[in-house]
Amino acid sequence: MAQPGGTASNNHSLAGPEQNNDKGNRHDEPTEEKVEDLTRYNDGSVKLRNPNIELMDQDILYHLALGSGSHDLQEMFGDVKFVCMGGTPKRMETFAHFIMDEIGYKLPAGTQLQDISAFSYRYSMYKVGPVLSISHGMGVPSVGILLHELIKLMYHAKVKDPIFMRIGTCGGIGVEGGTVVITENAYDGLLRNSYELAILGKIVHRPAILDKRLVRELKSLASSDDPYDTITGKTMCTYDFYEGQGRLDGAFCEFTEADKMAYLEKLRDFGVVNIEMECTIFAALTHYAGIKAAIVCVTLLDRLKGDQVMAPKEVMNEWQQRPQFLVSRLIKKHLAQMGHLKSLASTPSSIKSPRRFKLVQQESEAHE
Question: Where does the Nucleoside phosphorylase domain start and stop, copy by copy (predicted)?
Answer without folding.
Answer: 81-332
